[in-house]
Amino acid sequence: MPIGLTRAAVLGAVLLAACNQPPTPGLARGETLYNSCAKCHGESGEGSQRLRAPAIAGLPQWYVESQLVKFAASHRGYDAFDTTGIMMKSVAWILDREGDVPSVAQYVASMPQPRTEAVLHGNAQAGAATFATCAACHGASAEGNEAVHAPPLAGRSDWYLLAQLQKFKSGQRGARPEDTWGATMRPQAMMLDDSAMVNVVAHIQGLGGGAPR
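Given the sequence above, the corresponding C-alpha cells read:
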C-alpha cells in the first residue's frame, strides 16, 4: 500500500475514534444520555402517570446519582413484581462508562421542576400528623436532607409517592440489607395502611414546591 494511503488510513481511523468518544462528563454529555430517559420521563422530565414514570426534573444531583447506582446494583428493581423498577434497572446498566451517571444526574438536576397536579384525594389534615415522623428526615417542608439521604418530596407526583410507600411496605423497596437508607424507610411504610398513605401524600402535596423555578 502506498505510504500516502497508509497515512490517510491511519488519520481516518484516529478521526473516527475521536468522533466516537463521548463528550467529557458534564451537562452536554448528560443531555445526550437523557435521550434514553425521555422516552418515559418526558423531554422536560415531567413524567408520565400512564407509563408509571415519575417527574424527575429538578431532583438534586446527589439523589439521582444514588438511585441510579442502586438500580445498577439491584438494590432497587430486584422484585419480580416491580416491573417499573426492573425497567429502570436495565436503563441504569447501560450507563456503564465512567462519568455517565453523574453527567445525566447533573442534567436532570438542571431541568426546571415541573408543576404537578394532585390526582389523589386524601385528608391532608389527617396526613399532617403522620408526616411529623417523616419530617425528621425529609424536613418540615419536605425539602429533603442529603445528610440522611432523604429526597425532597414537596412538589412531586402524589401517585408516585403513594406507589413508593406501597413498594416499601410490600418489600419491593428497602428489603435489601445493602440498601441501608432504603431500609430505614420500610418500617415507616409498614406502619401505614392505604388510607394513611393517601392522607400523608395529600399533606405533602399541599406543601407545594411544584412551581417552576
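DSSP finds nine helices and no strands in the chain. Try to locate this feature in the C-alpha cell string yourself.
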